[in-house]
Each structure stands twice: as C-alpha cells, then as structure tokens.
Design brief:
The chain is α/β, with parallel strands linked by helices and 376 residues long. 34% of the residues lie in helices and 18% in strands. The chain folds into 2 domains: 158 residues, Class I glutamine amidotransferase (GATase) domain (Rossmann fold, 3-Layer(aba) Sandwich), CATH 3.40.50.880; 179 residues, Rossmann fold (3-Layer(aba) Sandwich), CATH 3.40.50.880.
Length: 376
C-alpha cells in the first residue's frame, strides 16, 4: 500500500515518479503478495538527482535496505540534496546507515528523538507511522515539492477528508503484521475474495482492499485480470501482475467480488458481455463490491438495480436513474451490494468487507493495526 499510494498521489500532482527496485528491475512480491513491476533498478537511477526519495515499510524490505551497503552509500550521497521520506518501520534502514542522526522521528529508534505524531518533518527528513496515514504522508510531500494548493486539489480529487479538514491525529507505532494463516480461525471456513481489474484501474483501489483482506485472514484473495493474466498498467502508471485471468475462475465460488474504479477499467467491464454474465451468475451468492466509478460497470449489466449505492461524485448522474443514490455515506451496503466513493474511502470500504466476511471485531483489530482512526 505504501508504494502504491505514494506513487499515485505524487503522479496526480504532476510529479515525475520512478519506482525503483532495490535489487533490480525484476517483479517484486510485496508484503501481502501483490506483485508489481518496477520502472527501473536502483543501479539505473543512483546517479540521477531526485527531489524526494521515498522508502516504504515492510520487514523484509527494510532489512534488505539496512543490509545493503550500496543503498547506504546512495542515501548518504543524496542526504543533503533530497527529501528522504519513509514509512512505518522504514526509519530502521535510515538508522542503520546513520541518515538524519539526531532528528525527530515518529518511530522509537536509537539515535533519534521520538515524536508521537502521524507525520513528522524535520528539515529534509519526513517520517510517517504506517499505511493508514499514507495519503497524508504523500500529500505532505506534494506540499513540500509543489505547494499546499496543489496538495489540496489532489486531496479533493481523492476524497481525502483528513487532509481537507486539517486534522492531526495521534497513534502508536505500527507493529509487524502477523503472517496471515492458511487455516481458518476458531474452526470457521476461510473466506475468499476476487479483485477483478483491467488497464486504467485505480491502483489504490486494487491494492488497499487486497492488503486489508489478506491481513484479516481472508487468506484466499485473488487478483484477476479482466482480459488475461498479463501485467496491468493502472491509472497512474503502476504495473500490477494479476494472479490469473478472470476466465480461469468462472466456475469458482467467491464470498466477495471486488471491482475497483478507473474509467478505462470500468468501461472495459461495461463493454464485456462475458463479465456481465459472470456478475449475473454470482449476484445471489457473493457480495459484489464496487468503489469509485466501479458502479458504472454494475449499471451497464443491471446488477443490483433499484438498490442503494454511492460512488465517485462525478458519476452520480449516470447512476441516479438505476439506483437509489446516497450522497452522504462513504460506504453503502444494501443486501449483497457494497459501494464506496473513491480512493480516500478505500480503507473504510475494505474494512466493511472484513466486517461482512468475518466480523466487526476482526475489522476493528485490522483498523487498529493499520492506524485507521476514522473506522468505528
């Protein structure tokens, strides 16, 4: 999530973003099994000048950074000319390479002064608590590289209310997540979900639900390409490798089918008769969950006609004649239909799915783990 949200927000702010693999350009398997393809390897970019260098968390990732002398040299060379920004337990890698020694951090690491805030800026060093603060973290970088007006514009587009309202919340350090179990808890059957997406999908709306559901021990989360199993280029340029193609799953039962937004992605869904047939077959047995412009695909295939829905505000006129439109709820549930407004509501959308597939207590635990303060 921390890679995807940062890249997406910065690219929407007209900032040139390169996703670089620490060890090269090979596909990278992230903490909760998402596979992304970097734009370049560290070796390819280490001589370039960047205004900001961003280090996501993830225990394996941070340990690799901490062990890499080449990476330490890169950071030391860039320390005086670039903002160095890191998430979660990423400051451990900075500490290993003596970057920003003596500055304020929001992680309790020796050599630094601890501050209990979501985001801390000390000179050119920026630190952030964890995944749920990723939007505010990225918007803070936009402020520093562009200006507050641009950050506000992007916050408005993404429906990030925390930024618009200027809230500053406090939280504790994000602990290492436990490995999701392959066995169900308390003797219950494990749940399953499929996230279907195509070129132009909103990457945050693919990644956040996948990550949250996997942390909640909804262990069988499949990312399926609408058209095939080839890498998918998302709306802001991130390339995600699906686990399989949708056609490979047509006879498989899922507890939830999740449709991210992105107009190009949703247009492809709307134009696909095969996808429409798939949804109609699954409508009674599965939760069908759509976020942002995703409900446009549902409307094209008459899924959930007459039910209560919400969406990204700009597509409201295309839905009002088919659904009972709800303006003032971030997530709307009507029977087996779940809809939500956009990227800024993606955590709440995913946590609602956890509630429905598991229970409220599990959702609360995941919200606490991810520092999602506005979930209740």
């Amino acid at each position: 999530m921390e890679v995807v949200i940062s890249a997406d927000v910065l690219r929407r702010s007209d900032i040139d973003v390169t996703i670089a693999g620490l060890c090269g350009k090979e596909p990278i398997k992230c903490n909760n099994n998402l596979v992304i393809i970097p734009d370049a390897g560290l070796e390819d970019v280490k001589k370039e000048k960047f205004d900001a260098i961003i280090l996501p968390g993830g225990w394996d990732n941070v340990q690799t950074m901490a062990r890499s002398e080449e990476f330490g040299e890169f950071l030391r060379e860039k320390e005086t000319e670039s903002y160095i920004a890191t998430f979660c337990h990423g400051p451990i890698a900075l500490a290993k390479h003596c970057i920003g020694k003596g500055k304020f951090f929001n992680l309790q690491v020796t050599c630094y002064r601890y501050v209990d805030e979501k985001i801390v800026v000390d000179g050119n060093l920026i630190t952030c608590e964890g995944p749920a603060a990723a939007f505010l973290f990225a918007l803070k970088i936009v402020e520093l590289l562009r200006n507050t007006k641009k950050a506000q514009e992007v916050a408005d587009i993404l429906l990030v209310d925390d930024y618009k309202e200027g809230r500053r919340n406090f939280g504790s350090f994000l602990k290492k997540p436990s490995i999701h179990e392959k066995k169900a808890l308390n003797g219950k059957e494990p749940k399953s979900a499929v996230i279907i997406f195509a070129n132009g999908a909103e990457e945050m709306e693919v990644v956040i639900p996948a990550d949250v559901l996997r942390r909640a021990k909804v262990v069988d989360v499949i990312l399926a390409g609408l058209c095939d199993n080839k890498p998918v280029k998302c709306n802001q340029g991130l390339v995600i490798v699906p686990d399989c193609a949708m056609k490979d799953l047509e006879n498989r039962k899922f507890d939830a089918i999740v449709l991210p937004g992105g107009l190009e992605n949703n247009l492809a869904m709307a134009e696909s008769d095969k996808f429409g047939e798939y949804l109609k077959k699954k409508e009674e047995e599965s939760y069908i969950a759509a976020i942002c412009s995703g409900p446009l695909a549902l409307a094209a295939h008459c899924i959930g006609k007459g039910k209560r829905v919400t969406s990204y505000p700009k597509v409201k006129p295309d839905l009002e004649s088919i659904y009972k439109y709800v303006d003032d709820e971030k997530v709307v549930v009507d029977g087996k239909l779940v809809t939500s407004q956009g990227p800024g509501t993606a955590f709440l959308f995913a946590l609602k799915l956890v509630e429905l597939l598991k229970d409220k207590q599990e959702a609360k635990e995941i919200a606490k783990l991810l520092l999602v303060d506005n979930y209740c």
